[in-house]
UniProtKB/TrEMBL annotation:
InterPro entries: KH_dom_type_1_sf (IPR036612). The keyword Cytoplasm does not apply. Gene3D superfamilies: K Homology domain, type 1. This is KH domain-containing protein. Residues 69-93 have a biased composition (Basic and acidic residues). GO terms for molecular function: RNA binding. It comes from Symbiodinium necroappetens. Residues 94-105 have a biased composition (Basic residues). Residues 69-114 are annotated as: Disordered.
Length: 114
């Protein structure tokens, strides 16, 4: 399926996290790939084709992705980002980066004789 260029990062999520979330909810396997014209498309695979209203399967995954695209397009028109949105119960921003473990090389060299 076609994903607008300005929505690809929103749909895939950090390191594919949003695609994995939709895969879990729908029993599908998804990834971005180039079509024969060199355009990037979202491919959705499942033995279950799904239906327009039922949960699970390819059609359910497509509905969820379309909702994400519409959410992003509405947010862009209002100048909002994902972190500004108030209505996103299924998305989790609970994973935050840990502080860097890298130490300042100046402090190590200053304390070592030599």
């Amino acid at each position: 399926m076609h994903i607008p260029e300005n929505c690809k990062g929103w749909v895939t999520g950090n390191r594919g996290s949003e695609l994995r979330r939709v895969e879990q909810a729908t029993g599908t396997f998804m990834f971005m790939a180039l079509d024969r014209h060199g355009e990037e498309r979202l491919l959705i695979f499942s033995a279950n084709g799904g239906s327009k209203t039922a949960d699970g399967g390819r059609m359910h995954a497509e509905r969820l992705i379309n909702e994400m695209v519409q959410e992003k397009l509405r947010g862009d028109s209002r100048g909002r980002s994902r972190s500004d949105s108030l209505e996103m119960p299924e998305r989790s921003n609970s994973r935050r980066r840990s502080p860097s473990r890298r130490r300042d090389s100046r402090s190590r060299t200053a304390s070592q004789p030599g």
